[in-house]
Amino acid sequence: MWQSEELSLDRRKFLAGAGALAAGSFLPNPMKASWAGSPGSQLGEWLVDDFGLPCYHYSGPLSFPESPRENDSVMLPDDPLFLLGNYRLTLFAHASGVYQLLTGERGWGRMNEGDAPYSGANQATVEAAGQHHNLIGVGESAAQDAVKHFGVGFARYDYSLTPSLLVTRQLSVPPSTSPGDGASAFLVQVRLHNIGSGPLHVTYTETTRARYQQIFSPWAKEKSDIAWPVDATRMLSAQTVVVSFEARPKRKLAFPPAGQMAQIEEFPPALFVHAANGEAFASKDAAGNATAGGRWVGTLQAGEAREIAFVVGYTRETSRASIAKLVAGMQPAARMSKKLGSAFAEAWRPRIPSFDKETDADLRREMRWNVAMLEAMATWREYYNETVVPQGTVYDYTWGMMASSRDLAQHALPLCHTNPRLARSVVRFLMKRTVPDGEIKLNDEGFGWSSSGAQQTSDQQLFFFLLLAEYLRTTRDASVLHEQIEYYPRDCSGRDTGLAHVRQAFLFLRDRIGVGPHGIVRRWNSDWNDMFFFWPTTMPYNRMFEEGESHMNSAMGIVILGDLAEMLAATKDPSTAELTGAMQEYRTELLASWMKDLGERAFPRRAWTSWNSALGEKEMWLEPQGFALLIPEFDADRKRRLFEEVKKRLLEGESMGARQIETPVNQPGTPAGSRENGGFWYALNGPLILGVAKFDRAAAHGLLKKMTFANFARSFPDYWTGRWTASDSLDSSLRKTNGLSENMVWCAHAHAWPLYCWLRLSEGGADSAE
Predict the structure, then answer these.
(1) What does the alpha-carbon distance between residue 513 and residue 498 come to, in Å, rounded to a whole number?
(2) DSSP 616
């Protein structure tokens, strides 16, 4: 990957075991949160739970009525959300108590679709002493007043209800332990405590809407000629209810034979609720939607506390025995602990390195949190039988597609250190997304279905090689090169060795994508920057493929091909010799062209749009700069000069890191200072940090701290959208909405790149993992 400094086997010795920090007793804050939208308002604080894992105490509001808007999107969304999950389950828990239950195993779908697009619907109610309390909802006083904690594998809400009832409601998700495994269900624990002087008759009800919808349905009308009505509701027992859905297309041949790739989900899973205490039931909500739930009815004597539990999940195996087996795996954790933390905390702890040698409290906490979030986001994909960490944001959680391959590769970089088995699964996934000629599919949706759109990117192979080189560097496990792995589409394209996949991807990069008139890797109609798909250009559209060249692609190629060739050579496997030689030969050609193109310039251009028209001639673009700093042959003095230009042109005045363009161009639909028009990107600042580390580790460390959630909270105290996760990009100082994003907030970039940079900067500097 990045230019290798050594080949020793102690590369991973800095990973630490899951050390438990001493934590004080959990004392819920009884004060109601308030917010006036003024600078310095308190939205919450980081804590350590009673199992030594990071968690967030959210004490802010549920709604943000003064939020700025962009393109009809609210930029500071109501009802902040946290993600809980394992490889078989994705669960968004909101501050209001609402949750969204997502399945990503085949196609991205929501099991409890709410009334608004991209929302969930569920209820928890309490009736006591003639009073009715709705615990869930932005407009509900109980939800507003609740004390809220969100951590590794759990979301906890504490309520104080009149006349004398304390209620604790907690959602917990167990971790996965190996790619492909995990429970597609979560545990709901409820503690009812009568603190009054007399008996209290209580009815507690927990329900979820049973409405499946493939996630792309609300916005893609051409894909919506299908409905998934309830097919059957069955009471498997007095404690278990299951709701099945049936795909009903409006046109013939909507579905291919089972097992083949399909855009529309023909086999959605069933939703079930198991009431460990009390009884399960099925009903309908006020809108006529099917619901599934559980209820407990009883009398609490003065001072008495009662614990009840529910298991909520989805499954394609709807027999009583199958669901009973899934539920049984959750039962040992059903008894509620008085400790603050997940019901499965003891299972989560070994999954989260302690990073004990990190002395900066913010960095140590955030790196642990980032590991946990990547584990929670990771999703098993049935079509490929592999597990990957999706990008999130709009790609997965709004558009319902698994995109893009370059993103999946980047997210797996830190996994090479923290979870090599999962990183290996991502490597195999990318190989299975490779067609026999070496093209790597950009994305897929539904059951492995990949569109044939107009966008033709030129960098998927480079990001695949980036991950493969890092995997070989950290693990020394070259066996993946000799496995028989399917090409895409895996249901009809055959298979070959992993090394053959690498060879074909290299030939696609060298011979199909090729180089342009300046000897620089061609851009086609986009490289990393998808906006090149419609960036202003003076030449005919088809000429972008013929003459457009990417300085980012070229710098990446020089760095990554050198590292991958070195790693392949280190395997001492004769079968890699020819490929290694070809990579080194091509790298030498690219380096000569790139250095000639650079000349005496202080920084590389961004791209050639034609033979004599370039972007970045006078104005700096960030894309190629980080990789330029990683080129070994680019001497240290010139690297320092380049970094001084970055600081002056892209870093000055920025809170989180370097923005993407020095002076944005006029781009319709994307205001200056946002996204690929001058916004801040985690995925571009990561390579910059690693490049700066080659000659100034202190400066690199400073850039890493700048990119943290802690720095975001200090810089933007009224915004929740960058405190524990973030979108892929944030608006820069060039906009009044600096620090915000119009994208859906939850992106793996914001977790993977800070973690990977920390791991690379800290190699050899921490203790080993358990």
Answers:
(1) 21
(2) S
Q: Is 617 exposed, middle or buried (0-12, 13-18, 19+ CB in 10 A)?
A: exposed
Amino acid 269: pLDDT:
97
Instruction: Decide if 293 contacts 285 (C-beta within 8 A).
Output: no
- Angle at 603 (CA atoms; ends 602, 607), nearest 5 degrees: 145
Give CA–CA dist 572/186, Å, rounded.
Answer: 47
Which residues touch 682 (CB under 8 Å, ≥6 apart)? Answer: 707, 726, 728, 729, 747, 749, 750, 752, 753, 754
pTM: 0.93
Give the chain's domains with CATH numbers: 44-59+79-351 (2.70.98.40), 361-761 (1.50.10.10)
DSSP string over 513-579: I-B-TTSPBB-TTBSS-GGGGS---SS-TTHHHHH-EEHHHHHHHHHHHHHHHHHHHHTT-GGGHHH
Q: Which residues contact 257 (CB under 8 A, 6 or more apart)?
A: none
Q: What is the mean pLDDT of the chain?
A: 90
Q: Which two tokens stand for residue 665?
A: 């161009």
Q: Which pLDDT score is estimated for 330?
A: 86
Q: What is the dihedral of CA 104, 675, 413, 408, to 10 degrees?
A: 30
The dihedral formed by the CA atoms of 615, 620, 625 and 631, expressed in degrees to the nearest 10:
70
| Residue 735, both tokens | 């906009």
Q: How far apart are CA 368 and CA 255, in angstroms?
A: 43
Q: What percent of the residues of the chain are helix, what percent strand, and what percent coil, each to the nearest 5?
A: 30, 25, 45
Torsion sign over Cα 734, 739, 742, 746: positive
